Amino acid sequence: MIPSNLKQEKKTLLFETDWLASTPVFYNLKNNLASKKIHDVLPKDFNFNFHPEGLSNFLDFGYSVFGQTPVQNINFLPPSSRLFRNNDGKLIIEQMVDPIDKWIDYTLSEVDIIDLIKERVQNWEKSLPPCQKIILPLSGGFDSRLLLWCLKDKSRIKAYTYGISSKQDESTEIVHAKKLADHFKFNWQQIFLGNFHQYFNDWDNEFGFSVHAHGMYHLEFYNKIRENLRGEHAFLSGIFGDVWAGSVLPVKLDNEKDLINLSFSHGLSANSKFLKLSDHGQIKKNFFIDNKEKLSDPRFQVITTVRLKIILISYLMSVPRLFNFKSWTPYLDIDIVMAMLNLPKKRKLNRQWQVDFFKKIGLDLENQNLKSDRTNNLAFKAMKKNKVSPLNIELLSQLFEKKYIEWINKNIIVTPSREFQSYLLDVPKIGGLLRLLGVKKTCLESYYAYLCLKPIENILKNKK
Fold first, then answer.
1. CA-CA distance, 82 to 25, in Å (whole number)?
2. Mean pLDDT, to the nearest integer, of 338-361?
3. Is residue 440 within 8 Å of 375, Cβ to Cβ?
4. Beta strands in 218-339 (DSSP E)
5. Which residues contact 458 (CB under 8 A, 6 or more apart)?
6. Which of 110, 127, 219, 397 sits in a 20 to 30 Å window from 379, CA-based?
């Protein structure tokens, strides 16, 4: 008999992440809890503290990064890792070999990349039950356009599109999607948005304090799709297709402070300088030191951007699943991704390789003189239609300077003058001047900060 102290300790695999950690997994080593939902790993008595750097980075990026959430002891798994539970109940993290090292120099021609994507899409299509419909969110952009072209049986498609300009019917997304529907003769429908502020609680229940609350428009989008659609359906996503194809350009990274240039937050963040907690930035420093050499490679920069932002953008796959859609995409396959990243720099610039492909097959919508509105006024429309409740100054003043919370509350109120300013912002010449004067910045900066602070307010309500 083997002595008990020499017996091999048993462990049970709980979770495993892929090369991007495309499905976030949260864990708490203090209470040994792990889940795909961040709320599940909070202490049951809500006796927790905020992590100074985790919260600071959350504000600057707009989402949790570097494996640390805004709350102490609550982390998330990195790519290519496993989470085990020992027989004593404790959690153990095992880091696997990063497959990027194997695939980093994988190359294919442009034609072969298109063929490979088409093959993967059609193999997925064949794997579905014969009568099952395929839900396709169709923006009319390059990524969803290519996926549409790849699908063999267009009669199975149910495509949906929402517009983002003041007159949604005239949005570029709607105009392009309608053109594609007319060309391929498939089932397409426009979805009107603007009431997504009704979904604050739903968003918080799913994503909590891991990300800002901006993605609520997707909850409204899929909820409206579901109104006249029953049963389980396949779902084809274009997640990150633009990033791999060439939309992200290399940036200069001299030190850890420059890592924010990889966030591509598009202003959807808050200002960490108003945070009362002291942040020494050690997690960010360590990340930069560990990855400095690799980050000089533009390909690894793009991969790092996605890995940093995956905690947010993963909602493009997870939200459809909430509505019983089985989401899938070819743009998470590492061979497709690396082949795209390894295309010549000149061909990736402005996604020229895809521009030429769409010209070749007659789907270069950008050159067909289609009149459309490219402005994005969806957030302002929602602010006007469903006013958001002011932030709780007393609660948030525990963490932030009071004047910052007051500034946010003051500027999220849509007044007649701001509504007029929003209209003028859509007028090319006047709008350009107003942007230079900071009108748009004032209107949206406060709203974006609100979306970052609201999840923090929600957990403060329960904190002991």
1. 10
2. 97
3. no
4. 233-236, 325-328
5. 204, 208, 209
6. 397
- Percentage of the chain modeled with pLDDT above 70: 92
* Tokens linked to 205: 């229940």
Q: Cβ neighbours of residue 268 under 8 Å, at least 6 residues apart? A: 62, 212, 214, 448, 451, 452
- Calpha distance 274→446 (Å, rounded): 13
Give 407-449 pLDDT, tens digit per residue.
999 998 755 455 545 544 444 443 443 344 444 567 789 999 9
Cβ atoms of residues 365 and 176 within 8 Å: yes
CA 54 centroid distance within chain: 18
- Pair 259, 253: CB distance under 8 Å: yes
Average pLDDT for 83-98: 96
Q: Determine the Cα–Cα distance for residues 214 and 359; give it in Å rounded to an integer.
A: 34
Gap between the Cα atoms of 253 and 259, Å rounded: 7
What is the rounded CA–CA span in Å between residue 304 and residue 81? 16
pLDDT of residue 251: 93
Over residues 297-330, the pLDDT tens digits come to 999 999 999 999 999 999 999 999 999 999 999 9
Give me the phi and psi of 9, to 5 degrees please.
-70, 130
**Bridge pairing between strands 33-35 and 26-28:** antiparallel
Nearest-angstrom CA–CA distance, 40 and 26:
9
Q: Which amino acid is at 138?
A: L
Q: How far apart are CA 225 and CA 245, in angstroms?
A: 29
What is the residue type of 390?
P
